[in-house]
Design brief:
elongated, two-stranded antiparallel ribbon, mainly alpha, 1 helix, about 50 residues, single chain
Length: about 50
């Protein structure tokens, strides 16, 4: 994940692996987990930019 210092561009890079699931709920949980991880990475990058 990379955020430019002037926030004009956000680049997301992660493995484009399929979310393994057997039920619809497992798929939903997998998607939520991916978004949570992306959010955590963005927050970490933002902290680094602010220091």
């Amino acid at each position: 994940l990379a955020l430019s210092r002037n926030f004009d561009k956000v680049t997301l890079e992660f493995l484009d692996e399929p979310i393994s699931h057997e039920t619809e709920q497992e798929l939903i949980d997998g998607i939520k987990k991916r978004f949570r991880l992306i959010r955590e990475q963005i927050e970490e990058e933002f902290k680094e930019i602010q220091t």
